[in-house]
Structures are given as C-alpha cells and as structure tokens.
Amino acid sequence: MELILAILIGVLFAAGTYLLLRRSIVKLVMGIVLISYATNLILFNASGLVQNGLAFLNKDGSYDKMTDPLPQALILTAIVIGFGLTAFLLALKYKFFKITGTDDLDQLKETDAS
Amino acid sequence: MLTMLSIGILAIFPLLFILFDEEQLKKHRYVLLLPLLVNILAGTIWFFQLQTGPIEHHFQWITILNIETIFRVDWFSWYFFMLINVIGLMVFLYASAYMKSYDGYKRFFTFLYIFTAAMNGIVLAGDLITLFVFWELTSICSFLLIGFNHREANSRNASLTALLITAAGGLALLTAVIWLGNLAGSYDIQKVLNLSNALHRDSLIIIFILIIIGAFTKSAQFPFHFWLPGAMQAPTPVSAFLHSATMVKAGIYLLFRFTPMMGEMVHWYYVLSLTGVITMLLGSFSALFQSDLKKILAYTTISALGTIVMLIGIDTKMSIKAALVFLLVHALYKASLFMLTGVIDKIKGTRELKEIGNLWKSNPVICIVAILSLLSMAGLPPMLGFIGKEVMYDAKFQAPGIARLMLLLSVISNAFMVFISIKLMVLLFLPNGNQPSSHSSKSKPAMMAGPVAFTIIAFVFGLAPYSLSDFFGNILSQITFTPVQIQLKMWHGFNVVFVLSLATILLGLLLWIFENRITGLFLKIYRNLFTINLTHSFQHIIQYFLKFTKIQTNRIQHGVHRYYLMIIFLFSIAYIWWKLLMTGLYVPTFNTENVSLLTVVVTSIMLLTVGLIVTTRSRVVAVVALALIGYGIALLFMTYGAIDLAITQIIADTLTMIIFVIVLQKLPRFARLSSKRSRMRDALIALSVGLSITLLILKADMVNIHQPVSDYFVENSLTKGKGQNIVNVILVDFRSLDTLGEITVLAVAAIGIATMLSFTLNKKSHG
User: Fold this and answer.
1) CA B223, B224, B225, B229 torsion: positive or negative?
2) What pLDDT is recorded for position B441?
3) Residue A15 lies in a domain
C-alpha cells in the first residue's frame, strides 16, 4: 500500500505544481490546497499504515491495534491551518478581483497600479 | 592619553549641541573654537615631549586578528597635526561667522568636527588599520560637506563623484593595508616599514600600485583630479579646510609615510614624478580658463598637489625638504585665499571674476592681505612662497634623471601661477568699469582673522626662513631614517636657481602683457587637449552602470511568480535527485499486505479526479473535483485508523468547497492565459516534481533514524491525560500550546478576512 500511496502523493504534487505555475489566481489557490493535502498524506504515510487500527485505549489502558497517534495530531493541526489559509487566500483574491478586475497574476508584478 | 583626548574631544563635542538650539549656538559661537584650542595646547605639550623622542600609546582592539590601536606622535605627524588644528581654528572662527546665514548650522559644525577628528586620527595613527578607518571617515565627511546644500542637484552630483572616487581609492588602500599587515605580522606602521627588504619584489609592486591609487584619488592626482573642482560646491569654509589645506593632503601624508619603504623603487620615481608633473601642468593650465574664483583656486590646488607628489617622487633629501616646505607654503596661502574668496563673495554677492572689481577703494585691507597671499602663490619675495619655489627648483636642479626636464616644466607651470596672480590682482582690485551695487562693504573681523594670521605667518617665515630649518631637519631625519641638517635661507646667492626664478617671473609678466594675443592660442590648445570632459565621462559611466544593474535586477527580480517558483522547484528536484543518487535509490517490492479493494478504488478515483482538475475549463468541475480528492483522503484516513483526521478533513473540505463556490460566483471564467508551449514546459516540471516526491517517500520509508516518541503518549494518555482518545489527549493536553497557536492562526485569518471584506479602498488612487 505504501507504493500506491507514494504514487498518489506524487501525482497530487505534480498536479499542485502544475496549478501553481498557472497565471490564474484561482488555480494557484487550488494548487496550494492540493499540495497541502499531499503533504498531510506524506506525514500520514510516515507513521506507518495499520489497517483498521485505532489510536484509542480501552478503559484499562490496554489496546488492540494501535496506530501512531502523534502524526495524526500533527496532521489535524495542519488541516485546520490549511483551511484557514485557503479561506484567507480566497477572500484576498475576491477583494483583489473587485479592485483590479483581473485574475492574471502577471498583472501583480508592479506595486503601483498601471 | 593625550592623543585619544585630542581626537575624542572633537568627536564628542557636537553632542553638546543638543543643549542649544541653532540661534543660541550662533549667539555663543565662540564656544565652537574650544576643542581646537585644546588641541593646539596638546600640540604645544607634545612639542616639548618630542625633544626626547616619539610618543606612543597602545590600545588593545581586536586581539584575535592581531589588531591594536596605536597612536604615535613624531615630528612628522606633529607637523601635520599643527597644520590641521591651527588652520582648523581659523577656519572654525571663519565658518562661525560665514555660516550664520545658512540653515543647518549645527549639522554643518557636526560634520566639520567629525572631519577634524578623523583628520587628526589619520596623522596620529600609528597602525595601518586605525589610519584606514580615519581615512574613510574623512571621505564620508567630505561627501556630506560637499553635498551640504543637498537641495541642489549640482551639489549632490559633485559629492557623489567625490565619494565614489575617494572611496574606490579607500578600497585599494584597504587591500594594501591588509596585505602588508599579513606580510609583516603586524599593522604597526614602524614594523611594516622595516619590512621593505624582506618583501618579494612582485608583491611589493602590487602593494605600491594599491597605495598610490589610494593616495592619488585622495590627493586629486591625474587622472582622478576632476572631483576636486566639483567639490567647490561645498560652502567656502569647507573648500578652505578640506579641499585645499587638509584632506587632499592626506594622500600626500601617506606617500611621505611610505617613502622609506618604497622610495628606492624605480616605479616610485617614474610614476610619482610623471603623475605629479602632469597634474601640476594640467592644474595650472586649466586654471587659466576659469572665471569662478573658487574654481581657479581649485585648479591651482591641483597644480600644487601635483608639485608635491612630483617632489616626493624624485625622492632626494632636497626634494623631500622642498615638498615639506611647499606643503606649508601652500596650506597658508591657499587657506587664506579661499577665505578671502568667501569674504568677497559675501560683499559682492558673486564669485565671477569679471563682475568683481574696484575692491581697492572699498576694502583696502582685503586687498593687502590678498596681494600678499597671491605673491606667495606666485612664489615672489618676501613671502614664504618664494622660499618654497627656490628649494623646489634647487631640488630638481640637483636631482639626477628626468628631473631637469621637470624643472623646465615647473618653470612653465609657475609662470602660469604668476600670470594668474597678476590677473587676479588686476581684475579684482583695480576699477574695471562695471560695478554692481555692493551688499555690505564691511567685512567681519571673524572672517578676516584667518587670512590676516596666515599672511603674517607666511610673511614672517618668508623673511626669517632659517627659523624653520631645525624643525624641517627633524622631520626629514624621521622620514628618511637618517640624520639630516638643512639650511633655509632667503638669499641663496646669484646662481642658476635665482636665474630660473627670474625667468619664471619674467615669463609670467610676458604672459600678462601679451595676454590678448596668447589667450586665443591657449584656448585652442585647451579645447583640443581636453575634448574629453572627465567629470562628464565619469557620470556617464555611473549612469551606464546604474542602467546595467537595473537591467540585471529586472532579469533576476522580474516579479513573475511562475519563474521564481520554477527555479525553486527545479533546484529542489535537483537536490533531491542528487541526494537520492548519492545514497542509492530504493524501489520497494509490491506487497498486498495493507491493500484492500476499497483503498484501491478510492485511490483510482482520486487519480482520475486529479486529472480532471488540471484539464477542466469549468470552474465548478474543478471545485467539485478538489472536494472529491479531499473526501478521498478522508476515506484513506479512516481506513488506516485515523477517525479524528477523517472527521476534520471532511469538515474542512466541505467548508473550503463552500467558500470556493461563493467566491467563484463573483470571479470570471478560467481563461487560457498561457501558450501551449509553456503548458508543456510546466507539465514537464510538474511531473518531475511528482516523481522525485514519490521516490523520496519510498526512500523515507526505509529510513528510521530515531525511536518514535509516540510510545510515550500511548503509555501516559490514560494515566496523565485521563483520556482514551490519544490524539485528542495530545491536542488538548500534551501539546495544548500547539493547539492554542492553531486557534490563534484561525482567529487571525478570520479577523483578516472580516476586515478585508468590510473596508473599501480608495479606488481613485488605485486606478
């Protein structure tokens, strides 16, 4: 399964990179979302995959099939922050479009309005 | 300690300005002279101490680099020190009155104090690093003072030119200093000078070149001379002090200092004498065609500096003596003339030669002082200038090699000086028809004190030059490391030198008499000789350089984000590949251990959707596809035992999709902005990024450097955190600060979004 996951992450990264290289700002945001997803998956993959495992203890402290809890905690934080970033970017993009009327990143080269 | 005091008091004194406002300072302006008086007192004390030998102070500075600060007073530095501070005293007195009508009185004097401190630092420094630091400081002060009227473009350009030239020389000097310091194992000038025999010839030549570049730029020698006339943009006291009497002599000071080390070199002789001669002739010849009084003085200063460099280059005892005497001569008459120019400027409101005239009637005192100073400049008795010229001729006459040729050229150059002196006297003091209404015909005593004092000194020493003999003998012994006795006399007898003096004066007079006929011819020569205006060429070079850097910056900092990203990606990939190849690629065997049908299906769907995002032209499809991938990831999380992640992912993903849809409504359709070729190129980069990431992950699976810390959480979650869900316990308990940070980020993002959406920018100013 690690091989499959690695390929999936690679494809997500490739797609994210491609979108980052577009001139459209919306595509750029999508690229960022894809790459942050893929990065989360890298972390998850690194914890070692245990099918049907659970980071959960029984009442007496014993457990059956443990997965690594720490990467999960890290990823959880990352997902939330990634969401915050995306929301902010989209709001920024919205305002930017309202003021400049363009979706083209190349128009953003200069600090002064041309 | 006195050395530190004499520099320190000048540097710290401007801090007292905080206590006064500008008007108060102008009222109590005589306070300004205090530090210089202290310095002259220090000089007097040293005079008695020096009878027993040089004074030295050592201070630790950077021990690890073998750098210590040494201050050393010997006769030679004492000579310069007194020149600086006595002339400084008069210039400060003069400036305190001259600058009264200017804004920035405090600023001006702050710069001037720091400059004086730095100048004293140069001549008192006993080690090369200290000397260099003060050397650079004088360049910076000169820059600030030339550009004092910084609202005028001319001043700014002139100060920038001066700074660039002198700072370039400073860099050369720094290289030489460090090189010498390394060779000698010490920066102590005494130790370095003793090194000369041990030095390899080739490295000596390079050091020599570096040092003369430093000295020539500072002392305005050809071809670096052109910054000095530009520097006349500075207020007149600055021209009198920095650009005739002191700072431009710093280069000459350096040459004097290195004479024992390099004086024997053939290169020293030819480079210095030839540069000196060219500069001397160029200066006096160019001075003929100037109409601005300060420009005339600037060019004659260049000529005088050339003369001194030439004399140092000849490097016989006679010539060094002549250089030392001439230095004093020039400092006295030139400071005096500059100050008088300022006085005339104040009275008549102009420095244009043709517009001034008839000064004799209104201001006889100025005229007498000026005439005496001009006599000194022309090298006529009874002034000290006469002695200066005599010893100079004598030195050249007795020196071997090309000195005789230089003697001839010196006579010509001096004849020009005589001519200029006569011209100035006639045009300034005799009636010449046009008389513009004078502003105020009275000259202030504070402004006349300097010229009068210097003229009296030059006059007294001119009549009794033998009183200087012992003093110059001491200095000469110090520079050449051998005891020397010298005689200075007014009347040397009727010999070749005297004949040459007569010839000089005669030639000058002839030039004056036949001025009308000769001027045209000279002007023709001048125009043909100087078709290239060095100042302009220099500014062109600077402009082209700036253009070049602008192009270069635009190339690298082009502002197109794609290319920045591309470079980042390409370098990251290259690095990853390099690392992977260095450590060996790892390709795992495919095992079906963890694979379930569900995951395979989910992954396949995700791969298809990814393709959809990239290729679709519909915004809605792209957003839905993005959400699908998010949900797919949530499913994967769930399959491999991360329930909390799955829940969070689904919530975040849903919200992201909603926001996307809201925003997309207001946005235009996707446009195809890039060409097919650039899309192919991007795809190639993207694929190689993906491939390297995949390989990196596979490799990472094989590497297990540290024991995971997770066991700690598994063991302690229930006992310490009182929770069964370990992930939750980590988030709210073990690593609760992380979570706090995360919440803060969200809060900041929310506040940011709210403000951004609620406020409206002024549309007019943003097109």
Assistant:
1) positive
2) 62
3) yes
CA–CA separation, B55 vs B76, rounded Å? 12
Q: What is the DSSP string of B86-150?
A: HHHHHHHHHHHHHGGGSS-HHHHHHHHHHHHHHHHHHHHB-BHHHHHHHHHHHHHHHHHHHTSST
| 10-residue mean pLDDT series, chain B (767 residues) | 82 85 84 90 91 87 86 91 93 91 88 93 92 94 92 89 93 93 87 74 85 93 89 91 90 90 82 91 89 91 93 85 90 92 86 80 85 88 83 80 80 90 86 59 81 90 84 81 71 77 88 81 78 79 90 84 90 91 74 77 91 86 92 91 90 93 79 79 92 88 76 85 87 90 93 86 49
Distance from C-alpha of B702 to C-alpha of B85, rounded to nearest angstrom: 77
- Mean pLDDT across chain B, nearest whole number? 86
Cβ(B384)–Cβ(B328) below 8 Å: yes
Radius of gyration of chain B, Cα coordinates, nearest whole angstrom: 39
Q: Which chain A residues touch B756 with a CB distance below 8 Å? A: 91-92, 95
Q: Do B686 and A18 touch (CB under 8 A)?
A: yes
DSSP assignment, residue B33? G
Classify residue A99: in a domain, yes or no: yes
Taking an 8 Å cut-off on Cβ atoms, the answer to whether A4 and B603 are in contact is yes
Q: Provide the token pair at B326.
A: 């001439």
pLDDT at B590: 65
Nearest one of B599, B598, B621 to B610, comparing CA atoms = B621
Q: Looking at the 3D structure of chain A, how many domains does it have?
A: 1
Q: Domain boundaries in chain B? A: 592-671, 708-767
Please list every residue in chain A whose beta carbon sits closer than 8 Å to the beta carbon of residue B561. Answer: 105, 108
- CA dihedral over B267, B268, B269, B275, signed as positive or negative: positive
Complex ipTM value: 0.93
Q: What is the mean pLDDT of residues A7-33?
A: 92
Nearest to A1 by CA among B698, B576, B691, B628: B698
CB contact under 8 A, B667 and A97: yes
Q: Rounded to 5 degrees, what are φ and ψ at B371?
A: -65, -40
* B24 CB-near residues (< 8 Å, 6+ apart): none
Task: Report which DSSP code applies to A104.
Answer: B
B722 CB within 8 Å of a chain A CB: no
- Residue A84's domain comprises 2-47+67-103
Torsion of CA B734, B738, B739, B744, to 10 degrees: 150
> Hey, are the CB atoms on B673 and A68 less than 8 Å from each other?
no
DSSP, res B69 = E
Specify if A21 maps to a domain: yes
Nearest CA in chain B to A106: B560
Q: Is B169 helix (H, G, I), strand (E, B) or coil?
A: helix
Does residue B643 contact residue A75 with C-beta atoms inside 8 Å? no
A28–chain B nearest CA distance, Å: 10
Name chain A contacts of B761, Cβ cutoff 8 Å: 99
Q: Residue window 364-393, chain B: list those with CB within 8 Å of chain A.
A: none
**A101-108 contacts, C-beta under 8 A, 24 or more apart:** A103/A24, A103/A25, A103/A26, A103/B667, A103/B668, A103/B671, A104/A23, A104/A24, A104/A25, A104/B671, A104/B673, A105/A23, A105/A24, A105/A25, A105/A28, A105/B560, A105/B561, A105/B562, A106/A23, A106/B560, A106/B673, A108/B559, A108/B561
Give the pLDDT score at A87.
93
Q: Which residue is listed with tokens 């030095």? A: B199
